[in-house]
Amino acid sequence: MMHVRPLCTFGGGCTLMLDLQAEQYDHGQSCADLYEAAVQLKRRYDLHPCAVRPRDGLALRRDSERALVQELVKRFRELPIEQQRRLPALLNSLAQLEVVIGDLESSQRAFQEVARLVADPISQAEAHHNVYHVALERCDWNEALAALRRAVALDPDAFEPFPFARYEPERLLGAGGFGVSFLCRARDNNRRVVIKALRADGLERDVATLFHEIGILQDLDHPVLVRTHDCACVGGEGTRPYLVLEYLQGQTLAEYVAEQGPLTPEDWLAIAWPLARALHAIHGCGILHRSLRPTAVLLAPVVASPGLETASPRWRVKLLDTGLALKRTLIHACASNPDACSQTTLGRSVARTLPFAPLEMLARPKGRLWIGPHSDIYGFGKLCAFALTGRIDLSLYPSPETGGEKGESDLRRVPDAWRQLLAHCTAWTIGARPEHLGLVLDRLAQLPGAGECIRRIEHDLHAVTIAEHTAALEIAPHQVAVLVKRGNAYAHQGELDKALADYTKAIELQPEDASLYRRRALIYARSHALDAAIADYTEALRLEPRNIEARANRGLAYAQKNDYDHALADYNEALRLNPRDPVLLSYRGSAYAYLGDLPRALADYSAALRLDPDKVLLYHNRGRIHAQLGNYEQAIADNLEALQLQSDNASTYNNLAWLWVTHPCPEQRDPARAIEYARRACELTQWQIAGFLDTLAAAYAAAGHFAEAVEHQRRAVALADEAEKVDYQLRLEAYEARRHL
């Protein structure tokens, strides 16, 4: 029988001298059983013809299979040295199998030997790239980078993870399930950056979706999110995506807790607040983080910068890996293989993530559980628990599987307010968790002593942003995007003149950009320069006549000038463009109310509520119109509905108290209930709102308790502004004369 030598197939994945079948035909007939055993095992483990892949180490490693691979390697090493040198493809395949069984050091040496044995550059590059992958698994970062450089020098089209011509890799920072991180120097501006070479085949979502979200985050420019300078792909088919990220020196939360132990509640709040703010911001853009864990939180030391005049926080907090998530099939493969979780980069990454992932993210791939903001809220709660206790075990809180005994001693050291918040965030069922991060932020703000800490954090966050953008503008002063971002930060700080200056400079550089006029108009409106705001909105509408935002905001500016005819004209045009916008209907309803057209105001508020039935303010507004029309029962019903939606809204309690005091039918008045609700409104606002104290005084007077009425009315007069003082003083005199409303 005549033997025909098989052809090498480059498209199938084998390189010139690493084609196992061709090598067996040429040099390996004497050890055909060794080749056959290697081929069968590679098929069993679904290995690439000649390349190492990150998932290769996830195969289950039975002792019998480990022994079989080791026996094959032993038999190969027993061959004469000269024969071994003629069989690099067989050695390469055996090294691949050693990766599967976890013999990484031996595998790395074997791939290095393959690189020396093969002669053609393509095969050498493949071998060096295999050394790179195995060195990553061993956390041998120096050897990994050296091997990658050799592979890229020989075959950049196949193995370059990012453009080396643009970014010079200095050192390898680490590797995980999402990819490999390199510290690089950008050749065009000498700036240090971090490049994350993504493992696209391991990501839950496609690269196009991920890059789209990154573009949104770049526009958001939140100071807590690590900045992405660029995202792109290399390779003939764009198969190797990478991210160019800002570089910050620091340590992860995991490293800090490992070195220093758990944080105090006060110290953790300084980290938790900016993290929650960042999560709330990305959720507002329709983006989820998806992989919250201690290694995704970077704590960088603050370096004093020119222009940063405020007291700096202890840490500068950065949130990493937003939007990245591993395929659930890989998570399950790692979770079912303890060896993989400790001996592979992918497994170690999964092991770090599992304790912080909610059930809905760990469900089997065929499951249809909804992943949403509640999933990040769960991760945030577990992150808080880790920071405050140093524990990552899943039994920290009671669940159907655990009784909660384990970790109780750690929890006792956590203040009650924190413990209750974390229990809600990490609830086993989705419905028991807070609906959105805004509610979590509210709970954080109510923690003892949180007020001053949060004010400092907020100020410093924007101060850091301003300093960074100022430094960028000193290098390149005509960057419109940077001017806008610095203007936004100035606006957050209340430095409106500086914000106006930045937006004005941006308009000079880009005068046909309608969005710049809209931004400046908002600042003019905040500065009460309403004519200037209207002029900017008018210019924005000249450039974009169908822009609803500009039309609605110009209407608001007209309304602030009490020019309700022009305001109505803008609202009507905006509603013509978008007739089902509840916000626009609410604006127009308010304009009708100020003009005294109560039936039309009532109709607009009712239409808005049909579109957005969970908006508390709409119930307040419609209730006010009902009261003005004499429909007190409907007014009370609207406010009771608002109370069902938000049980701690002080305005709702105040509205109901006032309605029960001023009801035109004496038999429908309820002074006792009015006192109860008015007191609740005052308690919720720390007794600092003059109008709520005025309502409470009226309730006491209606009940005949004039001494209490006088006491609270005097406090209302003291807190009232000049426009309110006259009416409040008249009521005080009435109560002193023992007359109620």
Number of strands: 8
Give the CATH level 1 class of the domain at 262-452: Mainly Alpha
CATH superfamily of the domain at 262-452: Transferase(Phosphotransferase) domain 1
Distance between the termini: 115 Å
Going by CATH, the architecture of the domain at 262-452 would be: Orthogonal Bundle
Q: Given the C-alpha coordinates, what overall shape results?
A: elongated
Range of helix content: 55-70%
- Biggest beta sheet summary: 5 strands, antiparallel
| CATH fold naming of the domain at 262-452 | Transferase(Phosphotransferase), domain 1
Features:
Transferase(Phosphotransferase), domain 1; Serine Threonine Protein Phosphatase 5, Tetratricopeptide repeat; Phosphorylase Kinase, domain 1; 8 strands; 5-stranded antiparallel sheet; alpha+beta; elongated; 36 helices; single chain
Explain the overall architecture.
With 741 residues, the chain is an alpha+beta fold. Among the domains are: 20-156, Tetratricopeptide repeat domain (Serine Threonine Protein Phosphatase 5, Tetratricopeptide repeat, Alpha Horseshoe); 167-246, Phosphorylase Kinase, domain 1, CATH 3.30.200; 262-452, Transferase(Phosphotransferase) domain 1 (Transferase(Phosphotransferase), domain 1, Orthogonal Bundle); 648-741, Serine Threonine Protein Phosphatase 5, Tetratricopeptide repeat, CATH 1.25.40.10. Helix content is 60%, strand content 6%. The protein is built from 36 helices and eight strands. The strands form two sheets. It has a five-stranded antiparallel β-sheet. A hairpin with a 5-residue loop joins strand 4 and strand 5 (240-246). It starts with 19 loop residues before the first helix and ends in a 5-residue tail after the last helix. Mean pLDDT is 90; it is low at 1-13, 308-313 and 394-406.
